[in-house]
Amino acid sequence: MARKKIIAGNWKMNTTLKDGVKLAKDVKKKAKLGKNVSVIFGVPATHLHAVKMGIGRSTKLSVAAQNFNANDGGAFTGEISANMLKGISVNHVILGHSERREIFGEDDKMIAAKVSQAINNKITPIFCCGEPLKIRKSKKYVSFVAAQLRKGLFHLSAKDFSKVIIAYEPIWAIGTGMTASPEQAQEIHKKMRGMITKKYNAKIANNTSILYGGSVKPANAKELFSQPDVDGGLVGGASLKAKDFLAIIHAM
Ligand code: PGA
């Protein structure tokens, strides 16, 4: 079976509840999704339940948290747990986003623990990785991203790894308007698939969805998605307007 094509929106800390629910409903109403294509809304914690209810039962539309805590529960003021997500039928979580890594100091070890916690709770992790501009310029980006994969994901068994979605998001392209060229995205996606083949096997590598993120827009989506190893996108800014997000979905 062909691997899944996925368009995920990352709303970050944007939208009110009312606007967020409307946005998800507008997308649901107009999205024409091919057989193998699905859409995930990565929404603020306060919106998870309402957006989930708003889109209703669907095999093609899902809601993702943007973060959670690796502990089961207890004295962790301000945090949310896997169990809380399960309780409202949220089955995806974005982990290791560069903003979590850079602003909130999440390191590889913490992210690896969250990945395990997600898998143990039957929540699909959308694992983000990607290099800063300095590393891109130094040409060491392949080994940088390889280390992120190794430290954040490669502790998983083959069976568990096959449940993961990966998003490659070069930090220099996030929210900057500067997009990786289709060739740049393809190059590293292919290398990542090669790493997965080496660590696990070709079948698992071929079935892993690897999304590209970083200033995906209606104008560049089609070209990016046409690359053989780019299986969709993780979209920030452009996921906040139904029209733009729909255009990106329909570019898949
Ligand atoms: P952007 O964000 O599309 O606004 O660049 C992508 C992301 O951070 O996931």
- Biggest β-sheet description: 8 strands, parallel, barrel
**Given the helix and strand composition, which structural class is it?**
alpha/beta
Q: Between the first and last Cα atoms, what is the distance in angstroms? A: 18 Å
Work out the number of β strands: 8
CATH class value: Alpha Beta
Give the C-alpha Rg. Answer: 17 Å
Q: Strand-and-helix sequence, N→C?
A: EHEHEHEHHEHHHEHHEHEH
Give the DSSP E fraction (strand runs of 2 or more residues). Answer: 15-25%
The count of helical stretches stands at 12
Strand order of the largest sheet: 1-2-3-4-5-6-7-8
Bound molecules: 2-phosphoglycolic acid
What best-fitting shape do the alpha-carbon axes yield? globular
CATH topology: TIM Barrel
CATH homologous superfamily classification: Aldolase class I
Number of domains: 1
- CATH architecture classification name: Alpha-Beta Barrel
Mean pLDDT level:
96
Detail the poorly predicted runs: none
Question: How would you name the oligomeric state of the polypeptide chains in this document?
Answer: single chain
Fraction of helical residues: 40-55%
Q: Secondary-structure blueprint of this entry?
A:
Blueprint: E1 5-10, H1 17-30, E2 37-42, H2 48-55, E3 61-65, H3 82-87, E4 92-95, H4 98-103, H5 108-120, E5 124-129, H6 133-138, H7 141-152, H8 158-161, E6 165-168, H9 182-199, H10 202-207, E7 210-213, H11 218-225, E8 232-235, H12 242-249
Parallel strand pairs: 1-2, 1-8, 2-3, 3-4, 4-5, 5-6, 6-7, 7-8
The structure holds 2-phosphoglycolic acid.
